[in-house]
Structures are given as C-alpha cells and as structure tokens.
User: Fold these one by one.
Assistant:
Number 1:
Amino acid sequence: MSLYELFGSLETGFIFGIVALGAYLTFQILDFPDLTVEGSFPLGAAVAAVLIVSAGLNPWLATFAAGLAGFVAGFITAYLNVRFKILHILAGILVAISLYSINLRIMGGPNKPLLGVDTVFTAFEGLGVRSYIVSPIFLGVFALCLKLALDLLLATGVGISMRAAGVNPAMAEANGVNVGNMKLLGVGLANFLTAIAGALFAQVFGAADAYMGIGVIIVGLASVIVGMSILPSRTIFLATIACIAGAILYRLAVAAALNAGFIGLHASDVQLVTAVLVAIALIAQHSGLPFLRLRRKGGDK
Amino acid sequence: MIRLADVHVTFNRGTPMETRALRGINLHVPKGEFLTVIGSNGAGKSTCLNVIAGLCRAEAGSVTVDGRDMTGWPVHRRARHLSRVFQDPKMGTCEDLTILENFALAHARTRPRGLRLALTRAMREDAADRLRLLGLGLEDRLGDKVGLLSGGQRQAVSLLMATTGETKVLLLDEHTAALDPKTGEFVLDLTKSLVRDLGLTAVMVTHSMVQALHTGERTIMFHRGRIVFDAKGPERDRMQVADLLALFKREQGEELADDSLLLD
C-alpha cells in the first residue's frame, strides 16, 4: 500500500468514524438499530453541495445546515417508531427510501459536482502542505472534536437519561425519563453526525451523489464492531475512540483486501468485501474468539 | 396521600381471555402510612400497584397522589412524585451505568439536570454517605458498573435510589421475593428503617403473609380484583396467619388457594 493510499484510508476512515459515532449512539447507547443513515449520508452531501454551489453559502454553514437536515431525517424515523409504533428498522428504511427521491429533488439530478468552489478544505490550502496530507489531519481533528462533544453530551443529565433509556427503559421511566423523547433526540443526533460526514465526504471527493449512501450503515456498524472488539470500551471516552479507530482499521482492511492483487478484487467489489468483513467480525463475536469478541454489555470485569 | 376511587381494570377485553383484574377498588393511604398488600396470583395486587405507578391505565375511576389527579399521566411524569422498587433486582438499576451514575439518574427524577453535567461533587458525597449506611463497602465502588454487583446489593442500591431526593411515596413490588432469605431480610430491614426515617408513605406488595402482617401498620388482601380484607391497629397486631386464612374463608365462603401464598 502506498503512502498516498494510506492517507486516503485515513481520510475516509475519519469521515466514516463520524458515521460510526452515530451508529454507536443508536445501536449501542439507544438500542435503536437505525437504518436512516443510508439516506441521511447522501442527504448531508446533497444539502451541502447545493448550498455551496447554487446558493454560494459559506461551506462551514452549509455543512452545519446539512447536519440539521440529517437531524430532521433521524427525528422523523424516531417519531414514526415512538408515536406510531412502527418497527424501528422499518421506520428507518421508509425514511431512507423517501430520502432517495428527496435527494434527487434537492440536487435536481443524480449528482452535484463541487468543482471550483470553496469548501471547508479551502482554508487549509496554500499552507505549503500537500492536500492529501492536510485533509486527513483536518478530518481527524474534526472527528475528534465531534467525539469529545458526544462524550460531553453523554455525561450530562440528558446523556445519562439517554443511556438508561437504551439499556433499561422501564427503569429509566421509573426515574422520570421520557424514553420516547430520548429516542427522538438520540436518533436525530446520530443522523446529524451522519449528514455532517456526508457533507464532508462530498467536499473531499468533489461531488454529491444520490447513490453514495449505499452500504453506509454497514460501514458505520462495522467500524463500531471492529473498534470495540479490539480496543477497550469500558467508558464512553474509550468507546468513542474505539469507534473512530475502528473506522480507520476497517478502511485499511478494505484497502488491503482490494490491493492484494492475487485475490483478484476490484474497486467495485468493495461492498462485497465490506459485507464479508462484517460477517466475519460478527461470527467471531458469536463463536467467542477472545480477541474479536465484543464486550458484553456491562460485563467488563 | 394515595387515593384510588372506583378503579376498574380489565385485561384482554372482548376476548375469551378477558380478565377483570380490578373491580371497583377504593383505597385511601394516608400520609406516612406503610401499607402491605397481599393476595394470591392474579388477585389484582400487582395490577393495583401498576395503576398507581402508571404502567397500567385505569379504565374507570381515578388515581390521586399527593392531591394530584394522575389518572391519565404517563409513567415518567408520575415518577416525579412517586418512586418504585421492582421485584427483579436487575430492573431497578441500570447495569451499564456506574453506581454513581445510577444515583445521578435517581437524583434527576425529582430535579432534572438537563444539559448540566450529571455527576457533581455534592452528588458523589451524598451517594457515598448514603451507601456507607449499608455497610457493604459500596461507597468505595462508586465508579463500578452496577452490573458487577450481586442481586442483593443491587436491590439495596435500588432502595437508596428510590428514596433519594424529595420522594414522598414509595411503591415496592415484591422487592424481596427474588433474593435469598438472608439478603431478603436485610433489604426488608433497610426498607423499614428508610420508610420510618424519611416519613414516607409506602405500599408494599408481598407474597408472604408473615411479611405482610409484620411490616408496616396496615394490611389489605386482594382476591379476584377486590379488596376483601383491610386490617390495622390492635386488630392487626394480634393477627396470625391462621386468623387471616379463617377470616378469608368466612368472608368469601371458600378456602384460600394458598399454593402461591407463603404461609411462613
């Protein structure tokens, strides 16, 4: 693997690390398997691209607006579940499917190029460092900031309520926690993060695309599983580090698999590689290979 | 403090499984009273507690606690005014959270902390002070996840959590039934002293007749969705399990199916 590919893996790794933080919030903290992200990732990209290109908005504001759009998407999924008792997975699929059409409308077509416009990366140009080095560093700092913000949120009164609502809803209710509201907020925030990641992805790779959401949920989940399988995750602080590290390791694993020429894999096989890697990680957990086993909830001794 | 007025609850209405769990319950528990509730399986005692806690909606009648009509309130809103300890020690505490975080959650029951940090120094000291009373050494394990504690320890922590803050009403649902006898006794003694020291109004559902008669100051018995027996004062003090069974037979004209009730 070349240095260039290594930095490329770090770049996408940090972006998907943000997705992984969202997946951690929904799958691990809230026990709410949320599939909305398949739609909210390209939604973030589409909103940011259109706001930057067509509206000429400041790229930072456009990225934040993309996050807000993601929050709304996640909120709708959780609302379908909480208010109308639609199965969480189904609610997520419904919103993700509808977002596919919505994204086409936002972009006015299947994609939106971001060429020759200012992005959040523009500010770091002209520092004398090559862009393929600058952007992973910037994304790394950005992902860590989001990680710390998430850590902080989960240490507040609301955060503890959210964690209790996921692990033991009956107990949370008995302690005055409105479990439904926690799901609305948590799933909304997870999709806020995912849409931010989508917006950054579009700015790094120069285009938003209606199809770029395919498999995002598996990548996010894979990062959480890989990270928490091999790194300590006793505390929230460690667990969120594990999510981001897992995303990077996962990207490196995919890059390595695609690079191993003798296997004969092409870039188009990336989804297959993803699925196989996740399946292996899950099987390893189940069969109890100690180094891959996801720590049982609360069972860290 | 707690007042139930003509409360009716029916499960599976309109099906062959229809069960009239509560048939017009009228109950008043004055402030500071410790009431014990007994009855066989399906008699309605747990349903009665669930109606007060909000887990089960009264289809007719009203539930008033501390002067507030809570009949239509959801569980989490009622939790501001009453607290609960569950039968299953795993239910009363959150295993993924540390002991201190569990206390913080319980504190937020009456005073929500919103976006302020959940753990404060004052809370840490308060939790340690209260845990020290248990004599289990838990005050030195505030950072341990609750999942690491034994059932008895978790139930003791649940009790402390349920009596933290400005609690006035405590609901106990067979909270010693899942513990071994020695631990159960420890938790029951803790319950008695907490209720007495904090001047709480408490309702304890139990399967054990002896426990019902020897805890608190008033005992009621449920049978087929009705209160068939209500004793307090000297009458109750003199009462033995045999008297309770005889009384039941006279009132109901049938033997009490005591397979599910513990006579000892």
Note: The first strand of chain A starts at residue 111 and ends at 113.
Number 2:
Amino acid sequence: MNKDTLLNHHLVPKHEILSKKEGEKILEKYGVTPEKLPAIKENDPVAKAIEAKEGQILKITRESPTAGKTHYYRLVSK
Amino acid sequence: MRTEKKIGKIRFRLLQPDTIRRMSVLRVVVPDIYDDEGYPIEGGLVDLKMGVVNPGMRCKTCGGTKDTCPGHFGHIELVRPVIHVGYAKDIYDILRSTCGECGRITLKEDKIEKIEDSPTEGIYQFREIRDKAKKKDECPYCGAEQKKITLTKPTSYFEGEGSAKQRLRPSEVRERLERIPREHLEALNIDPDLNRPEWFVLTVLPVPPVTTRPSITLESGNRSEDDLTHKLTDLLRINQRLADNISAGAPQPIIEDLWDLLQYHITTYFNNKVSGIPPAKQRSGRALNTLFQRIKGKHGRIKGNLISKRVNFSARGVISPDTALSIGEVGVPQEIAKELTLPIKVTEKNITEMINYIRSEEYPMALYVKTPDGKKKKITDMNRETLAEEIQPGYTVRRQLITGDITLFNRQPSLHRLSMQAHRARVMHGKTLRINDGIAKPYNADFDGDAMNLHVPQTVEAQVEARELLAVKENIISPRHGQVLAGGHDHVSGLALMTQENATFTKEETLKLLKSVNINRLPNGKDKKEYHGREIISEIIPDTITLEIPSQLSEKPVKIEKGQVKEGIMDEKCFGGEGILTREIWDKEGSDRAEKFINDITRLTLESITMKGYTISLEEYSLTEKGEKKRQETVDKGIGTAKEFIKKYEEGKLEALPGKTERETLEAMIMDQMEKINKKTWEIALKDLGMDNYGVVMAKSGARGSWRNVTQMTCVVGQMGIRGERLERGYQGRVLPHFKKGDLSPRVKGFIPSSFSKGLRPEEAYQQSMSGRDSLIDKGINPAESGYLYKKIANALLDINVKEDLTVTDAAGKIIQFKYGEDGLNPMKARD
C-alpha cells in the first residue's frame, strides 16, 4: 500500500518514533523495562511506513470519545 | 541473598527402564500385602522400604516417620514386555512409518525433512512423513516388502491382510522399535538425545510409594487398601503365573493368554476407562479408580484439588426473603452461628467482654483460647474458670459468630464481583439464611430453593477490607455500567401504585405506611384527612435531592424538588432497573444513606402493595365490545395486506430487496406486517384496558412482563416462528394436513390471530407448540454455551489488574493499557 494513503487513513492513528531520550523518559515514567511495553512488529505496515527499527519506541496518539487524545507506546520488535 | 531466575523451558521425556530401576528402592515380587500377624511382607506392595503411612512406624529407606518420609518408588520386573496404552497410537504411527526389517523410515534420505525443534510444528511435520511412508510397499534401503500394519484398540497390533494377517506381539514390536537407527528418530519427532522409541513398550513397571496409595483403617478395624494397591496385586499375581508357566514349559497358547491378561491389567492400571475393554471392577462391582482417573476431570487432581479447594469457617443454606433486614445484613440461623467462629485479640478494652464469653456456657461463647506464645487451649467445663482468670491483653479468644460480625455472602455461578458481597450477620431464629429481597438481583437469586454460601473472614485485615470494599452499600452501583443493581419487581409495582394520580391514602393508612419505615409522624407534619402517595414517599427521600426523571407511565417526568415528589409516576427508572433516584442519593448523601433509602423504599412499597392489593384476573384481559371490533379490524386488515404481498409475489411483480431473493423479500415483508399487527393491537389494548389495569401497569413500569405479554393475552398471539423464520416443517409444503400445499398465507404459516384469553384453535395450538419447543431448546443451548465461553474469557483475563498509577498490566507486569480504559475513569463513579 502507498505510504501516504496508509498513514493518512482515518483508521490509522498517528505513529511517531521517539528519540532515545524521549523513550527513556517514558520507561522511567511508567517504571518499566522496554520488554514490558506492548510490542509492534517491525514488519507491521505502519512501522514499515515510518521506517521504525527494532528497539525503538513508537508513540501513538489516538482519539478517544471519553478522553479526547490519548497516548500509547509500543516497542518495535522483530 | 535471594536471586531471581527465569525458567527457560521445561522438557518432558520418557521414563526409561534404567531410570525406573535406579529410582527404585525395592523390586516388588510378592503379591500378598500383610503376613499372618498383620505386618507388611518384605518385597510386598506395602514394604516399609517404600515409605510409611501408619503412625509409629519408620521408613526403612530414609528412617522418616509418617509425616517426614516422602515415600519411595519400587518396581516390578515384567516377565514379558507390555504395550503402554498411552503410547499405543505413537507406536502405531512409528511402526507404519518404518521398515519391519531394518527399522529405517521407508522414504529416501532426501525425502525425510528434518523436523524443527518446535513443540507445535514438529507433530505436523511428522504426520506428513508418516502419511508418505505408510504408503510404501518396499523399503528403499533393504528392499524388504512392507506389509500393512493395523492397530486393534487399545493395544494389539497386526501385520498383513486377510488370511495372512498375523499378530505382532509386544516383544516383536519392541524389537522393531529397537532397530530404528538414531539418525531417523528426529524425523519421527523424537529427540534422539532424550528418548528411544522402544521405551514406549514397558519391560519394567514403577510402583508408586505407599504414600500415593495409603490404606485406610475402617471403623471395624479392618484394613482397606487403595484401588491402586489392588490393581498392583492383580498385576503381580499374573506376572508371577506367567513366569511359572514359562519356566515350566507350558504350551504357547496358555502363555499367550496369560500375556494378554498381563497386558489387560497394566492397561487398566494406567487407565480404567479405555474404550474397547471392560473396566476392572472391585468385588463390589464398583469400577476401580486408577492413575488416569485420579488426574482427569472435575474431581480429578487438577480441577478438583489444585484449582479448587475446600474452606473452613463457611456455611451453606437455603435462602429466604426478609424485608425486616437491611440490604447490608444477612440473617444467620443460630445453629450456624454456633459453628462459625472467629478469633478476637484480647485488649484492655475488651477483656471483660472476652472473659464473659469464656465463662458463658451457652450460645455466645468462646471455644478456644490462644496464649501469646501460640499455645492453643480448648475451653472445657473443667478449665473454664481458670482460663477466664488467666487471659490478659495479648491472648486471643476464639468466639462464636454474633450479630454485627462481617461475613461474605455468595451465590454461584459467581459471574461478576457482585456475586460475593459483605453482609453484617444478624443471628436469628429459623433454619434458613435470610436476605432483603432488594439485594437478590446482583446475586441473581430467588427464593424457590436457592442456596447460598457464607464465609467468615478470620483476620482483622480481611474484616476491614470486607467492610470497606465489599460491603453491599459500597457496591450498590454496578461497576459495569454505573447503574443501580438493587431493587425488585414488586417494589416497582408498589412505587407506581403509590405515585399514580389517584393514589390517595387515609390518615390511618398513611400512619401505618410510615410506621413501616420508623417514621412516627404525618407527612410534613400537616394534619390532613387524605394524603397522596407522593407525599408519603417524599418522607424517605433526603431533602437535598432535586431531580427530574423521565417516566414511562406519565407524560410528565417525575419531578423531585428538595426531596418532595411534585409530579409524575415513578417507575423502574427511579428504583429497581436504572435506579436514577437511588444513584443520586448515593452520590449526594453517601452509601449509608443510600442503603437506608433502599431499605425504606422496599418496606414502604411492599406495605402499600399489601394494603391496596395487587392482582390479576381473567376478566381484565378481555376487551370491550368496541375494542374487540377494532382488534378484529386490525387483524383482518393486516392479514389482507399480507395476502396482497403474496399475490404480488405470485404474479412475479414483487421487487426484491437488495441482497435478498424475491421469496426472502416476501418473508421479510410478511414478518414485518405481522409484527405491525401486534404493535397496533397493543395500542388498542392500552386504550381499552386503561392505565388502572394491573398488567398494563406492570408492563409499563417495567416491574414485570412486557407489552407483548399483555397483547398476547388480550388481542393476538401473533406470528410463531422457528429460528426467526415462519413455520416451514411438517407435511409436504405445509405444517399440518389441514392446509393447502404451498399456501403462503399468514394463518397457514403460523400467524395466530386468537388471543390466549379466548383460547387457541387446535391447529393454532400445534403451531404455538412448535415455536415453544424451538425456544425451549434455544434456552437450553445458548446460556450453557455462552456461559462456558464467558468462563473461558474470565479465566484468561483473571490476573489482569489496574495498578496505582492506573496502568493496566498482566501477571508478568507487561503493560496492556497505559491508562485504564484510555481515560482512567471508574465506571462506578462516572456520570454523564
């Protein structure tokens, strides 16, 4: 699928790659090691589209009817 | 220092003969158990080397006593090899895949794919190899002819076909398995480093320690041995006889018969429920419980002993309703209270009370005293006085359950957390456990013989937790949807009755009603001749409540101003059902006030409904002449329209709906039309019966029943169906022989224009019973199936929990949600 159509699809929430520093901040905030985060496959269409690599943390911004915007974090894994 | 280690993987392997002999402390040879003096025979099945179960004896292997000796394995040397039932299928697969002569897989090397070391994939790859190999007639290595091998369940193998069919004895099977070269094992899904296929055939049998099969001493003083011991005795006896016959040079058929008998005993020793062979019985005729049966099923080791356990300090009894109790209480019969006990720590403040319990010789009494250094003393008539004088702060006294103690009350199936709530005990007369019927709903209990369980938390921590978190008043609002779960059917009827426009009560009646909720004055202190029901109800609503609640019974919503009900007829939206009023009180005034409100309203409404009477009579469900005429018109018109559809269809003029054939369209249109008849007649019935009709009030207020129940009794029963379709089955092209073949008109296909009050025609009764049977079967299957599905999901999600920072994690600490439900809202506290 085309990269742009995929990322702009209304059912695909915004995915961002976090920098190392930002990632560590998140881990510290939730007091966890990286493997405790929910995983996303490296060959997941979205991960491929934004060229995420194993070990990076993705920040997903979702719309929610009750909470407005919410953030979700996933660890890219093989 | 404590270190954490993770288990990487667990590997199971076959128990090999050498291992069995090495772990054995004794070769068992003697089939008898005790000698004439009742002492265990050496080399017998309860030899003291295999552990002790009787007090006072010592194990000959480890020197331990009954409590310290873990038990030790023995073994039996089998005279002839025997197939292990559990592996019969695996042996069969291997025999079919390999050459009978040289033992190699009957496929060329390059066709044998190496199997991945994966627990899930390995078996499938092996099956592919097996399916290819078993078709070969000739071994590609040694050229030997491959005969067809069959397995006759459970444990007999044959080679060849027709008259050339020959039995493969376990010894031959074992020899063949021995011949399989190590290099070919991997392709058979066997790890060559761990296992050899010939270990599937037993040559030596482990004898479990006596601790696994303890003998019981009966009241009569006779010893009774465990089923396994019995089985092992039989086994030993046959083994011995086989050995004797072989050494005596008995003819082959006799030896083979004994060999088969040995096979039978070993098969049933493992599993006494193998299909194809009769289960081994005890002398009484009861089938023996052998190894497999011990583990498997509901009462097996896993489901019966590991997942579920029996508890102390609990009671079970039939429940019955009692409005005099608060919803936060449970009535406990004194007989039960006498058996349930709880420990109380003696302090300076309660020491006199505790001394009284110790001195008491009847019901609220203490049973045990525990000294600060942990010594437990039973209170008897002899030491009662001394103990009463001995105790001081630091002691613990175990006393019987008394009114006010906190208990947990539960009804199975425990489908949600409200199936177990904390109730304050109220010790009372009678023999049943009692609850206020307003709290029956979360338990899904009724009083037609339901039984419930009661538990007494033993530690102070548990008691506080129960009081603060599990108490009924804290769980009035459901955590699932934020609605009130307390309240019952009759209470809604009573509420509707009391808030109707013409609901007036005399002064005497008003006083009597208010007396039931401990109010000993007239509403608002005003002396009047008559009072409206709303004024009476207002007395139990807190003054802080101002609220408007929509009503299904009146045009105007229920209006409450500063605790005074001004107008509107109250229904399930106020109390029971959604319970908006109760929820408002819970929010504004707290859980204690909400509990009191529910108690008051149950008593008040029940009192009023009893006073005024609430009944249903047959007459009420007949229409007036005018109504009857209207009903007939509606039905005729409805059927007429349906017939027009059919005519259109038959002429081929019916336009099909998208995704449907013309016939399907017709069915959908007719079903729709029939439903319209029912709905229209409900309007007729409503006008004809009026709002005073008790059935109408129940249906409208949501107390019990629905509009459909009323119309079916008064106007039309309506369309019958099987699986949502009009009736189809029966005779060729019709349901009954009374109809024309292929007739599609409503009455033929199960539309019943009669009403229940007037009665059904014979063919209508038949049609109705078709539909009735269908829904009965549905009721049986659906709840059972979805209940099981629910249980599976619930068990899978069991250890997911919300942490303090609102992250949701599983048992391993893996994050599932970063904030509970994305918004972190507690549904119990959330309001829209």
Note: The helical segments of chain A are 3-8, 20-30, 45-49.
